[in-house]
Amino acid sequence: MTVHSADSASSGELREPEKPVGAIAAAVTTPCRRCGADLTDAPIWQRLRVCPSCRYHGQLSARQRIDILLDTGSFKESHQNLTSVDPLLFSDRVPYSARLEEARETTGLEEAVVVGTGRINARECVIAVFDFKFMGGSMGAVVGEKIALAIEHAIDRHLPFISVSTSGGARMQEGMLSLVQMAKTAAAATRLHAAGLPFISVLTDPTTGGVYASFASRGDVILAEPGALIGFAGPRVIEQLTGRPKPKDAQTAEYLLSNGQIDDVVDRARLRNVLATYLQLLSAPSNLRPRGEHELYRPEPRPPASAWTAVELARHPDRPTTRDYIQAMMPQFVELRGDRTSLDDPAVICGIGDLGGITVMLIGQERGRGEEEHARRNGGRMGAEGYRKAARAMRLAGAWKLPIVTLIDTPGAALDFDSEARGLAPSIAQCLSTMSILPVPIVAAVIGEGGSGGALALGVADRILMLENAIYSVIAPEGAAAILYHDAQRARDLADALKLTAADLKLLGVVDTLVPEPEGGAHLDRDYAALLLKNFVLDALLELRKTSQKRLVDGRYRKFRQMGRQPTTSRRETMAHEMDELQKRLGGALSQVLEYLALRDGSSREPVELAALPPGENRH
Ligand SMILES: [Zn+2]
Asked: Which of 31, 111, 427, 616 is the most buried (most CB within 10 A)?
């Protein structure tokens, strides 16, 4: 059992604040546990148990949570009569059976978790909510059973699953029967994932031990409330074992976010809205149709004057970045963060959003405009963690059957020894492999600078788009000049030779489609640049929508299999010409045979139409 904030004020039903009356009221003021502010009359405290001054989040009962999160009256509880027994006849100071009885009386619940179905903004889901007041939200056999039953119900009904955890861990009074619930619930969560159903896990104060180390950590999306204590072992246990004090922010929601373990820290006032957004974006995305399908505007690109002009435009400090495109192209977007191992790499942005009515997984390198943002984002240079985060987003898109859109904009991967030690090259390889087998449409767009393997790691796509002033190359011109001439100043001379412009790469067959930019470059009108890109991405997605999963994966393999061995344009033209000649001759010979047969038979039938021949062929 870990430390928890026993919050006496949060017990009982949510109700309107009682009007203070004279001297009695002064005696029942409720001070904030963290900042001491008087919460007696604060509406947000009454409604959500959140301090308006310091955003301290107090505890809520399971029933209060359900009231706050679900549409009014939509909750249908299931398995509420499953009751714990005392399998070990366990007794410490107080018999386990007496503790259970006391917990039932305090909470009005049969067990520490409440499960059922309900709706959030009219979207149905299965939900499991813990109550810390019931024996510290500990997971005994019945709690584990109810979680597994709820997940199985979600699989049967093909519904998303949401869990809201607060727990001290396993219930020692049930011995190993309690511990094995970790295995049971983690296995159930894995089946949910295999069924392609979303699992959103919300961690609240405190979530520790066997709950945190089982299903609660297996959420596709993991959210946590501000300031929540979250960890495997309680901080006091670790302090005793290691003899070292707990670092100030260790084991908090914010600490986990910066260490790549969770996707977001969400204030309780916004939690319902965030869940609603996820449910809406993830509900039957394939049934949606983009708006304005027939009105997509596709002007002809006008390539830059020279390769070096393209290099300068691609690197222009005001050129729009992934964030600009997300803001302009997607009215709804929720970001997924962290590699679930060690870090959230800000050089790449991943998340799901609405692109013209289609829910897509967007993965884009973020250079960061402005000096400060550029430094914070490491100029779009992703490290090992960034590629692991991207691979996680790719796998989620595969499970949820969402098309993937990647935006490529990086001078290259983060080149430093730390990144090497954490597995930079293997994580790039992981992205390349993952993209090659995902059974969903993938559209990649090079929006700025596409530098080396760090860029290609997001580029294994069914359709590869490239903005007309973008560049995409095996090495930056400066790097090539340094190696070949021992003089980075000669980059300008080499830019042309590297064939890095969009037009060059289209000729080489590396890029499928050129996307036009506003006249003079995308930096001159970022919103219009986003409109043009959106039209071309939607166009590609619409085209790919008709392709079966198997044909997508096979086609993607063939596409990259062909690169570097397919005929050049001139050879392709020669082949086309030869085919024309062959058809003409065959067609001519066939006509002569048919005419001869007609004359020989003396029949008066009409000359045979050679409809199978391509139009414009000489038929005699
Ligand atoms: Zn406060």
From this structure: 111
Domain shared by 327 and 364, yes or no: yes
Specify whether 432 is located in the same domain as 356.
Answer: yes
pLDDT tens, position by position, 227-260: 999 999 988 888 999 999 988 889 999 999 999 9
In total, how many domains does the chain have?
3
350 and 237 share one domain: no
Rounded distance between C-alpha atoms, residue 201 and residue 134, angstroms? 20
Task: Give the total residue count for the chain.
Answer: 620
Taking the centre of ligand 1 as the mean of its atom positions, its distance from the CA of residue 275, in whole angstroms, is 25
Does 200 lie in the same domain as 84?
A: yes
Establish if 144 belongs to a structural domain: yes
Pairing of strands 358-365, 513-515: unpaired
Q: How far is the CA of 34 from the centre of ligand 1 (A)?
A: 5
In order, the DSSP letters of 526-579 are HHHHHHHHHHHHHHHHHHHTTS-HHHHHHHHHHHHHHTTTSPPHHHHHHHHHHH
Give, as residue ranges, everything with CB less than 5 Å from ion ligand 1.
32, 34-35, 37, 51, 53-54, 56
**How far does the chain reach from its first CA to its final CA, in angstroms?**
92
Cα angle: 116, vertex 120, 121; to 5 degrees = 150
Tokens of 454: 């760090």
Instruction: Please state, in angstroms and as integers, the Cα–Cα distance from residue 565 to each residue in 274, 457, 512, 569, 578, following that order.
Output: 48, 21, 16, 12, 20
- d(Cα 257, Cα 265) in Å, to the nearest integer? 7
| Residue 36 alpha carbon to ligand 1 centre in Å | 6
pLDDT digits (tens, 9 = 90+) for 361-415: 999 999 999 999 999 999 999 999 999 999 999 999 999 999 999 999 999 999 8
Range 255-293 burial, b when 16+ CB lie within 10 A, else e = bbbebbbbbbbbebeebbebbbbbbbbbbebeeeebeee
One domain, residues 241 and 367: no
Tokens of 199: 């699992």
Taking only the tens place, the pLDDT of each residue in 156-205 is 999 999 999 999 988 988 889 999 999 999 999 999 999 999 999 999 99
Query: Which of 562, 589, 610 is the last residue in one of the domains?
Result: 562
pLDDT, one tens digit per residue, over 27-40 is 578 899 999 999 99
The predicted structure's pLDDT at residue 391: 97
Q: Measured in angstroms, how far is the CA atom of residue 250 from the centroid of ligand 1?
A: 20
* Co-location of 327 and 463 in the same domain: yes
Higher-scoring residue by pLDDT: 132, 298: 132
This prediction's pTM: 0.84
What's the CA-to-centroid distance between 38 and ligand 1, angstroms? Answer: 8
Q: What is the pLDDT of residue 480?
A: 85
What is the DSSP-derived secondary structure letter of residue 180? T
Structural domain boundaries enclosing 483? 298-562
pLDDT band at 8, cuts 50/70/90?
A: very low
The CA–CA distances, whole Å, from 67 to 60, 120, 129 equal: 10, 11, 11
On whether both 445 and 464 belong to a single domain, the answer is: yes
Q: Please, how many CA atoms are within 13 Å of residue 112, restricted to the half-sphere of its CB?
A: 25
Cα 46 to middle of ligand 1, angstroms: 13
Report which secondary-structure segment, H or E, holds 213.
none
| C-alpha 30 to ligand 1 mean position (Å) | 11
| Distance (Å) from CA 135 to ligand 1 centroid | 26
CATH number, domain with residue 84: 3.90.226.10
Task: Note whether 574 and 549 are same-domain residues.
Answer: no
Distance 37 CA to ligand 1 centre (A): 5
